[in-house]
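Structure, all two chains, one model.
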Amino acid sequence: MLKKIVILLFVTCFACFNSVFAAESGGMPQLNPEFWISQIFWLIITFGILFIVLTKVILPKISDNLETRKSQILENIETADKQKEESQKKIDEYEKIILDSKLKAKSYFNEAREKILDDINKKRAALEKDLDEEISEVEKELSDLKQKSGEKINKIAAETSAELIKELIGEEVNSSSIAAIVEDQSKINRERKDV
Amino acid sequence: MYQFNVYRIGPEIKLGSVDLSFTNASLFMVISSLAILIIFNLGAKKKTLIPDKLQLLSELSYSFVAKMISDTAGSKAKPYFSFIFSLFMFVLFCNMFGMIPYAFTVTSHIIVTFVLAAFIFIGVTIIGFMKHGLGYLKLFVPSGVPMVLLPLIVVIEIISYLSRPISLSVRLFANMMAGHTMMKVFGGFVISLGIVGGWLPLSFSVALTGLEILVAFLQAYVFAILTCIYLNDALNLHH
């Protein structure tokens, strides 16, 4: 069955092929020299005109366009590079300024701190001095007072003891001896206290 | 083979006994050249930093051909840039216009491709002799070949050099003609197999159209690059 179909197909193809070329006669038209000269003539004219116009008018324009584009692009790249450099410079400057101002601020801060510290130290020293003076004055007064109070107590003790003795024995005792006794006694007291 | 027929359009132009009539082949040569000129002129008109579509197209083609030439023939081939550019564009546009249904394919005629190839061959040979004098004949004597083989090699080299225009022209012509013939054959199959069996050749035909467009570009490229290679032989003589 398949074989039959294939054979039929071949036969039809062959028939078609024959019918397609049945009308043709005289072989290939390419080998007919009737119009050869005409074809050569028109080929030379058309190709010649094409060549001349392309060479003289169109191709220079195209190459010009390409060249200008190339140079323009190069120029643009150059300017872009330049601008990039400039902006880099500006950025550097800016960073420098920022760094400088930071340093300045730091130094200002340090100065201010030192000033304040100095001030504080000075004031503290003055205050301490004042305080020391006052303390020493007070201490002096205190020691004075202590000394004086001992003498006074002794005096009062001597007077009181003299009056007591006068009352008791009705006789006046030498006040200096009483004072000496009181002195001795107070000394003993003091020693006892110290011990 | 009706599509390859050349016929007269308009009046008969005769120069003496030579027939220079305007034919459908001439018409498509004119159309291709005009299309190239219009497209590239529009593409070259404006001078904008960011190109529009046509400008991009023309500039891409320009750099494509420029790169092709500098890759194959080096910097010495720069003066011949405009010729190779015109050649490439002419062959490409003729091939591409041939892909339009009912259009005539200029490059499917051996006489057209042969004239182009012969012009290239003669030009390259003249350039070679002008650059190197008789030293250009060294092209036929490859270095490092034993003396015994030298006569044989020289003969082979000369034959291969002389066959360049033939191979160059036949390559383009045969490719274009074979492609178009094949498409015609498959088209004929579609008609004769009808609505039932015609779908298979139709799909082939569609695929072939894509292939032919590729071939149209590729053959133009090959034509141009072979020209560059021949030019390279003439400019930089180191075989």
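Chain B has one domain: 2-235.
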